[in-house]
Specification:
This protein is an alpha+beta fold and 478 residues long. It folds into three domains: 130 residues, Jelly Rolls (Sandwich); 190 residues; 104 residues, LytTr DNA-binding domain (OB fold (Dihydrolipoamide Acetyltransferase, E2P)). The protein is built from eleven helices and 19 strands. The strands form five sheets. A six-stranded antiparallel sheet has the order 2-1-3-8-5-6, with no helix packed on it. Helix 2 packs antiparallel against helix 3 and helix 5 packs antiparallel against helix 6.
Length: 478
C-alpha cells in the first residue's frame, strides 16, 4: 500500500514539473485568405477555448524556440482543427466548418509539425480554426491541449505499462473468482469477479486514447463508459462490503449506493463524475467495514484500511485517481482477496472430507458445513431447506436454523424421497406438511411449524401427487 502511495507521489511531482505554461488566446472573427487567415475583432478568451456548437478562430503570440529541437503544434479535444503559423498553413484535422453539414469531424488528437523556416526570430502568430458540431454531449472542458511542444511528443509509456499490468492482474482475478463461483455458487465470489472485471474493462477504455487516435465524436461514448464502469465498481464495492460485514442493512446500503452514485451523472465534467462516483462508493462502504471491525469479523480490518487508503488517495490526488491509481488500488484489494478465498476453500474442502468420512456411519443425519465448523443435523428434524445467497438455510424443528455451505441442487439428490423441491429455492419435508392452500394467485405450503413456504406453479402437480401418497395430519385444501 505504501509503495503504491509513494509511486503516485513521485509521478505526480513529475507531472507538475512537466506541465507546459498556458498560452494566452484571443477569439477572433476569421475567414480563409490567399496568404493565410484574415482575422478581425480579436478579444481575449477569459476562461477556456470552447468551440462546441460553433466555428471558432483563435490567435496567440508565441516566442520562437530557444534551441534547434523540432517543434509541433499539439491539439487535443472534441473539435476539428486547422492551423497556421505566421500565415503558413501547418495542416488540418478533419475540416472545420460553420455548421455540422460543412464540418468533417477530425481525430481527438492532432499533431501539426512546424518547419524550422516557419519561425520568426521575434514574435510568432499562431492561428487555429476550430469547430465542434458532432460531439454528442457538451463537455465542461472540451479542449485538453492546444500547445507547441518538442516533436515527437514523449509518450507516457511507463504509465501505460503499469495500467496494462494492473489490467492483466484484474482479468486474472476475474477469471479466478468466476471459477470459484462456478464451483461453489457463492454470491461473494460473483461480486468480486464483477468488481475485478469492471475495473479491468475501465483500464482498457482509459488506455484507448494513447493507443488509438479515434474520431472526436467517439469521445463522448468513451467518457460515458468510463463513468459508468467507475459507478458500477463503486456499487459492487458497497454490495460486497455490506453483504460481508453488515448483511442486515445490505438492502439499505445498496439503495443508498445506487441513488447517490447514480446522481453523480448530474455533475459537470466527466472526470468530476468519475472521481465522485468512486469516492461515494468508498465512503458508503466504510461504515459496514467499521461495524465489521467493531464486531471482530475476520477480514474487516484490512478492508477498512484499504478503503481509508483509497479515500486518502482520492482526496489528495483526484486528478490521478481515475487515470492511474484507481487500477492499482483495485488490484491491491481483489488479488489478496482471491488468494484468501482460494486458501479458505482449500481448508473447507479438507474439513468437509474429514467430516463426511466420520458421518458415513450416520445415514440418518446431514453433515452441515458452515463458517463455524461442521454439525450433524438429524434429517427427520429438518422442516425445509431454503436457498440463502452463498448458503442454504436448514429450518429445523423447534424454530432452530442452520446455514449450510452447500448447493440446493446437490441437496435434492442427497436427501430422502420425502423431501421434494416445491420452489426453485425451497425443498420441503413432506412428513411435516399440514396443508396446501391458495393465497390470492399464489400457493402456500404450511408445515407443522414455521412460516409457510412458497410453491411455484410448475411444481404444483408433482407436489399434489406426492401428498396423495404421504399421510398428513390435516386435509389438503385447494
Amino acid at each position: 500500500m505504501w509503495r503504491t502511495l509513494l509511486l503516485i507521489l513521485f509521478l505526480t511531482s513529475l507531472a507538475t514539473l512537466a506541465r507546459a505554461q498556458d498560452t494566452t488566446w484571443e477569439a477572433c472573427h476569421g475567414a480563409p485568405g490567399v496568404t493565410g487567415p484574415v482575422l478581425s475583432d480579436c478579444r481575449p478568451i477569459g476562461d477556456f477555448v470552447d468551440p462546441q456548437g460553433q466555428e471558432l478562430w483563435i490567435r496567440a503570440t508565441i516566442p520562437a524556440p530557444s534551441d534547434t529541437q523540432p517543434r509541433a503544434l499539439y491539439v487535443a479535444g472534441v473539435a476539428s482543427s486547422e492551423a497556421w503559423l505566421n500565415g503558413e498553413r501547418l495542416g488540418s484535422n478533419g475540416r472545420p466548418g460553420a455548421s455540422a453539414r460543412d464540418e468533417i469531424p477530425g481525430r481527438y488528437q492532432a499533431t501539426f509539425p512546424i518547419r524550422e523556416a516557419a519561425w520568426r526570430p521575434d514574435a510568432n502568430t499562431l492561428v487555429v480554426r476550430l469547430s465542434s458540431f458532432h460531439g454528442g454531449l457538451r463537455f465542461a472542458g472540451p479542449m485538453t491541449a492546444i500547445t507547441v511542444l518538442p516533436f515527437p511528443y514523449p509518450q507516457r509509456t511507463a504509465l501505460l505499462a503499469v495500467t496494462f499490468v494492473a489490467a492483466g492482474a484484474l482479468l486474472a482475478a476475474t477469471f479466478g473468482f468466476g471459477v470459484i463461483h462456478a464451483l461453489r455458487r457463492t454470491g461473494s465470489s460473483l461480486v468480486l469477479a464483477g468488481m475485478a472485471g469492471v475495473a479491468a474493462l475501465q483500464s482498457v477504455v482509459e488506455s484507448l486514447r494513447p493507443l488509438f487516435n479515434y474520431p472526436y465524436p467517439l469521445h463522448a461514448w468513451r467518457m460515458s463508459a468510463i463513468w459508468a464502469l467507475a459507478a458500477g465498481f463503486a456499487i459492487l464495492l458497497v454490495v460486497y462490503v455490506a453483504s460481508r460485514f453488515l448483511p442486515k442493512a445490505r438492502g439499505l446500503m445498496i439503495g443508498l449506493a445506487v441513488g447517490g452514485i447514480g446522481a453523480t451523472a448530474l455533475l459537470p465534467g466527466f472526470d468530476n463524475k468519475t472521481v465522485w462516483a468512486l469516492v461515494l462508493g468508498v465512503a458508503l462502504a466504510i461504515p459496514p467495514a467499521a461495524v465489521g471491525v467493531r464486531r471482530r469479523i475476520p477480514g474487516a480490518r484490512p478492508v477498512l484500511a484499504y478503503l481509508a487508503l483509497f479515500l486518502a488517495v482520492a482526496v489528495g490526488f483526484p486528478e490521478w485517481l481515475a487515470d492511474f491509481s484507481y487500477f492499482l488500488l483495485v488490484a491491491s484489494l481483489v488479488l489478496p482477496l482471491l488468494m484468501v478465498e482460494v486458501v479458505r476453500l482449500g481448508r473447507e474442502d479438507r474439513g468437509r472430507e474429514a467430516a463426511l468420512t466420520r458421518a458415513v456411519s450416520l445415514p440418518d443425519r446431514l453433515t452441515v458445513a458452515s463458517a463455524r465448523g461442521v454439525e450433524l443435523a438429524p434429517i427427520a428434524e429438518i422442516l425445509a431447506v431454503v436457498g440463502a445467497d452463498d448458503y442454504v438455510e436448514l429450518r429445523l424443528v423447534g424454530g432452530r436454523s442452520l446455514l449450510h455451505a452447500a448447493r440446493l441442487d446437490a441437496l435434492t439428490t442427497q436427501l430422502p424421497a420425502n423431501f421434494l423441491r416445491v420452489h426453485r429455492s425451497v425443498i420441503a419435508n413432506l412428513a411435516h406438511v399440514r396443508r396446501l392452500e391458495r393465497d390470492g394467485d399464489r400457493w402456500r405450503l404450511h408445515l407443522s411449524e414455521g412460516a409457510p413456504l412458497p410453491v411455484s406453479r410448475s411444481r404444483q402437480r408433482a407436489l399434489r401427487e406426492a401428498l396423495e401418497d404421504t399421510p398428513v395430519a390435516e386435509a389438503i385444501s385447494a
